[in-house]
């Protein structure tokens, strides 16, 4: 019997972790990729944000982190993805929260103006790059000599972070950036080329030669 319905939108970096958990744990969850046409989505989620999840019992949840932990908890094997000990669970949660707030929050200020979703000026663009460097450099330092964010295998921390950072890889992180951020590049290569992420993205991943440039409309 289906455990429930996951609502996502294809272009979103926040679709990745719930999808990866469903695949990794072989959960019987229906996935809806056009939520705006679904009356159940509109009824349960007035904010209209994804990801969103409704269980077979009617339990309705939004927020990427909450959904990820709930889905992982639906299987006994889920602890390998969200941590077995209290310290592991806290560490994984720390990196998920960092990626979903500081890291992505700073990167979106660079990316959204370039794709026409926020106003662009050269000054705000330069300031956004400088502000994000603090978080990107911190993440890069963490990944030095590591294949995974926490421990020796992929966890929800990797799934959430790959989903969000893939948006940077497909827009602003070009080969020059990658040559200066080898920890991030090696980690991303490792995780995205493994199942289940290799089933969600086209792999081997094609990196951009050059970052997207602002073109006035
Ligand atoms: N705090 C929420 C943010 C969710 C969110 O902003 N989702 C975006 C896609 S990544 C969305 O649905 N945006 C559509 C909108 O704001 O109307 C979470 O972490 O899940």
Automatic annotation (TrEMBL):
One of its GO terms (cellular component) is cytoplasm. It holds the Pfam family GST_N. This is GST C-terminal domain-containing protein. Residues 85-217 form the GST C-terminal domain. PANTHER family: ELONGATION FACTOR 1-GAMMA (PTHR43986). Belongs to the GST superfamily. GO terms for biological process: translational elongation. InterPro entries: EF-GSTs (IPR050802), Glutathione-S-Trfase_C-like (IPR010987), Glutathione-S-Trfase_C_sf (IPR036282), Glutathione_S-Trfase (IPR040079), Glutathione_S-Trfase_N (IPR004045), GST_C (IPR004046), Thioredoxin-like_sf (IPR036249). Signal peptide: none annotated. It comes from the Eukaryota. Gene3D superfamilies: 1.20.1050.10, Glutaredoxin. Residues 2-79 form the GST N-terminal domain.
